[in-house]
Amino acid sequence: MRRGLRLVPAGLLIGVVVEIAVFVLLGRWIGFGWTLLLVLAVSLTGLALLRREGIRAWRGFRAALNAGQPPGRQATDGLVGLAAGLLLAVPGLVSGAAGLLLLVPPVRRLARGRVQGAAERRVSSAVAGDLFGPRRVRVRRGQPDAAGPGDGAPPPPPAAGTGPAIEGEIVEPRGR
Protein backbone atom coordinates (compact mmCIF):
# COMPACT_ATOMS: atom_id res chain seq x y z
CA MET A 1 0.00 0.00 0.00
CA ARG A 2 2.82 2.42 0.80
CA ARG A 3 4.35 1.74 -2.59
CA GLY A 4 1.12 2.96 -4.21
CA LEU A 5 1.13 6.11 -2.07
CA ARG A 6 4.52 7.08 -3.49
CA LEU A 7 2.93 7.31 -6.93
CA VAL A 8 0.18 9.74 -5.84
CA PRO A 9 2.17 12.99 -6.33
CA ALA A 10 3.33 11.90 -9.79
CA GLY A 11 -0.22 10.87 -10.69
CA LEU A 12 -1.61 14.21 -9.53
CA LEU A 13 1.01 16.10 -11.54
CA ILE A 14 0.23 14.07 -14.66
CA GLY A 15 -3.50 14.66 -14.07
CA VAL A 16 -3.03 18.43 -13.83
CA VAL A 17 -0.92 18.50 -17.01
CA VAL A 18 -3.55 16.44 -18.87
CA GLU A 19 -6.37 18.70 -17.62
CA ILE A 20 -4.53 21.83 -18.78
CA ALA A 21 -3.71 20.29 -22.17
CA VAL A 22 -7.36 19.27 -22.73
CA PHE A 23 -8.55 22.72 -21.66
CA VAL A 24 -6.19 24.45 -24.07
CA LEU A 25 -7.02 22.11 -26.97
CA LEU A 26 -10.77 22.44 -26.43
CA GLY A 27 -10.35 26.20 -25.99
CA ARG A 28 -8.68 26.45 -29.38
CA TRP A 29 -11.39 24.32 -30.95
CA ILE A 30 -14.59 25.91 -29.52
CA GLY A 31 -13.21 29.07 -27.92
CA PHE A 32 -11.92 29.78 -24.44
CA GLY A 33 -15.12 31.45 -23.26
CA TRP A 34 -17.23 28.41 -24.13
CA THR A 35 -14.63 26.08 -22.62
CA LEU A 36 -14.62 28.09 -19.40
CA LEU A 37 -18.42 28.00 -19.29
CA LEU A 38 -18.36 24.23 -19.85
CA VAL A 39 -15.91 23.71 -16.99
CA LEU A 40 -18.02 25.94 -14.73
CA ALA A 41 -21.23 24.08 -15.66
CA VAL A 42 -19.60 20.69 -15.01
CA SER A 43 -18.31 21.87 -11.62
CA LEU A 44 -21.69 23.24 -10.55
CA THR A 45 -23.35 20.00 -11.63
CA GLY A 46 -20.78 18.11 -9.55
CA LEU A 47 -21.55 20.20 -6.47
CA ALA A 48 -25.27 19.53 -6.85
CA LEU A 49 -24.56 15.83 -7.38
CA LEU A 50 -22.36 15.71 -4.27
CA ARG A 51 -25.24 17.00 -2.18
CA ARG A 52 -27.79 14.65 -3.76
CA GLU A 53 -25.56 11.57 -3.56
CA GLY A 54 -24.58 12.33 0.02
CA ILE A 55 -28.20 12.55 1.12
CA ARG A 56 -29.12 9.44 -0.90
CA ALA A 57 -26.21 7.45 0.52
CA TRP A 58 -27.07 8.41 4.09
CA ARG A 59 -30.76 7.51 3.61
CA GLY A 60 -29.86 4.16 2.03
CA PHE A 61 -27.41 3.40 4.82
CA ARG A 62 -29.97 4.24 7.52
CA ALA A 63 -32.73 2.28 5.74
CA ALA A 64 -30.51 -0.82 5.55
CA LEU A 65 -29.65 -0.55 9.23
CA ASN A 66 -33.30 -0.05 10.21
CA ALA A 67 -34.31 -3.07 8.12
CA GLY A 68 -31.62 -5.19 9.79
CA GLN A 69 -29.74 -5.70 6.53
CA PRO A 70 -26.00 -5.35 6.00
CA PRO A 71 -25.33 -1.72 4.96
CA GLY A 72 -22.20 -2.41 2.91
CA ARG A 73 -23.85 -2.31 -0.50
CA GLN A 74 -25.46 1.07 0.22
CA ALA A 75 -22.20 2.38 1.67
CA THR A 76 -20.13 1.34 -1.35
CA ASP A 77 -22.77 2.65 -3.76
CA GLY A 78 -22.74 5.94 -1.84
CA LEU A 79 -18.96 6.11 -2.03
CA VAL A 80 -19.02 5.60 -5.78
CA GLY A 81 -21.72 8.28 -6.15
CA LEU A 82 -19.75 10.69 -3.98
CA ALA A 83 -16.60 9.98 -6.01
CA ALA A 84 -18.56 10.76 -9.20
CA GLY A 85 -19.78 14.05 -7.71
CA LEU A 86 -16.31 14.94 -6.48
CA LEU A 87 -14.76 14.24 -9.88
CA LEU A 88 -17.40 16.44 -11.49
CA ALA A 89 -16.96 19.21 -8.90
CA VAL A 90 -13.19 19.42 -9.38
CA PRO A 91 -12.56 21.93 -12.17
CA GLY A 92 -11.46 19.98 -15.20
CA LEU A 93 -12.84 18.29 -18.25
CA VAL A 94 -11.07 14.93 -17.93
CA SER A 95 -12.07 14.54 -14.28
CA GLY A 96 -15.60 15.60 -15.24
CA ALA A 97 -15.72 12.93 -17.93
CA ALA A 98 -14.55 10.35 -15.38
CA GLY A 99 -17.27 11.52 -12.98
CA LEU A 100 -19.91 11.25 -15.70
CA LEU A 101 -18.66 7.78 -16.52
CA LEU A 102 -19.19 6.72 -12.88
CA LEU A 103 -22.85 7.72 -13.24
CA VAL A 104 -23.44 5.14 -16.01
CA PRO A 105 -25.11 2.14 -14.28
CA PRO A 106 -22.85 -0.67 -15.61
CA VAL A 107 -19.70 1.33 -14.81
CA ARG A 108 -21.11 2.23 -11.40
CA ARG A 109 -21.80 -1.47 -10.65
CA LEU A 110 -18.26 -2.37 -11.68
CA ALA A 111 -16.78 0.40 -9.52
CA ARG A 112 -19.01 -0.61 -6.59
CA GLY A 113 -17.73 -4.19 -6.91
CA ARG A 114 -14.14 -2.95 -6.90
CA VAL A 115 -14.72 -0.77 -3.84
CA GLN A 116 -16.45 -3.66 -2.05
CA GLY A 117 -13.62 -6.05 -2.94
CA ALA A 118 -11.01 -3.59 -1.66
CA ALA A 119 -12.98 -3.11 1.57
CA GLU A 120 -13.36 -6.87 2.06
CA ARG A 121 -9.61 -7.40 1.63
CA ARG A 122 -8.79 -4.78 4.25
CA VAL A 123 -11.11 -5.98 7.02
CA SER A 124 -11.58 -9.31 8.75
CA SER A 125 -14.02 -11.91 7.48
CA ALA A 126 -16.38 -11.21 10.37
CA VAL A 127 -16.48 -7.48 9.65
CA ALA A 128 -16.91 -8.11 5.93
CA GLY A 129 -19.82 -10.43 6.73
CA ASP A 130 -21.40 -7.77 8.94
CA LEU A 131 -21.01 -5.11 6.26
CA PHE A 132 -21.82 -7.04 3.10
CA GLY A 133 -23.74 -10.08 4.30
CA PRO A 134 -22.80 -13.70 3.88
CA ARG A 135 -20.57 -14.68 1.03
CA ARG A 136 -21.86 -16.81 -1.79
CA VAL A 137 -20.82 -20.43 -1.66
CA ARG A 138 -20.96 -22.86 -4.56
CA VAL A 139 -22.02 -26.34 -3.42
CA ARG A 140 -21.54 -29.48 -5.50
CA ARG A 141 -23.49 -32.53 -4.51
CA GLY A 142 -21.90 -35.89 -4.95
CA GLN A 143 -19.41 -38.18 -3.37
CA PRO A 144 -16.44 -36.44 -1.78
CA ASP A 145 -12.98 -37.68 -2.67
CA ALA A 146 -11.72 -40.66 -0.72
CA ALA A 147 -8.89 -38.56 0.70
CA GLY A 148 -9.55 -36.27 3.62
CA PRO A 149 -9.00 -32.52 3.86
CA GLY A 150 -5.62 -32.58 2.17
CA ASP A 151 -3.49 -34.36 4.77
CA GLY A 152 -4.39 -37.94 3.83
CA ALA A 153 -6.56 -38.40 6.91
CA PRO A 154 -10.20 -39.39 6.46
CA PRO A 155 -12.78 -36.69 7.06
CA PRO A 156 -14.25 -36.56 10.54
CA PRO A 157 -17.60 -38.29 11.01
CA PRO A 158 -20.69 -36.07 10.86
CA ALA A 159 -22.10 -34.84 14.15
CA ALA A 160 -25.10 -36.67 15.53
CA GLY A 161 -28.35 -35.63 13.89
CA THR A 162 -26.76 -34.17 10.75
CA GLY A 163 -27.05 -35.40 7.20
CA PRO A 164 -24.27 -36.43 4.88
CA ALA A 165 -21.45 -33.99 4.25
CA ILE A 166 -21.68 -31.84 1.14
CA GLU A 167 -18.47 -30.91 -0.59
CA GLY A 168 -18.27 -27.21 -1.48
CA GLU A 169 -15.96 -24.39 -2.33
CA ILE A 170 -15.99 -20.71 -1.48
CA VAL A 171 -16.47 -18.56 -4.56
CA GLU A 172 -14.99 -15.08 -4.44
CA PRO A 173 -17.23 -12.29 -5.73
CA ARG A 174 -16.72 -11.20 -9.33
CA GLY A 175 -14.15 -8.55 -10.07
CA ARG A 176 -11.25 -9.95 -8.03
Ends: how far apart? Answer: 17 Å
Strand content: under 5%
Order of strands, main sheet, comes to 1-2
Count of separate DSSP helical elements: 7
Tell me the total number of β-strands: 2
Helical proportion, percent range: 55-70%
Structural shape? elongated
Average pLDDT score: 76
Rg over C-alpha atoms, rounded to the nearest angstrom: 24 Å
The main pleated sheet reads as:
2 strands, antiparallel
> Strand pairing plus helix content: what structural class?
mainly alpha
Report the uncertain regions.
none
Give the H and E element order.
HHHHHHHEE
Descriptive tags:
mainly alpha; two-stranded antiparallel ribbon; 176 residues
Short description:
The protein is mainly α and 176 residues long.
What do you see in this structure?
The chain is mainly α. The protein has a domain at 45-137. 66% of the residues lie in helices and 3% in strands. The protein has helices at 2-6, 8-30, 32-66, 72-89, 93-101, 105-122, 125-132, and strands at residues 137-139, 168-170. Strands 1-2 form a two-stranded antiparallel sheet. It is elongated. The mean pLDDT is 76.
Write the layout of secondary structure elements.
Elements (H helix, E strand, L loop, with lengths): L1 H5 L1 H23 L1 H35 L5 H18 L3 H9 L3 H18 L2 H8 L4 E3 L28 E3 L6
Helix pairs in contact: 2-3, 3-4, 4-5, 4-6
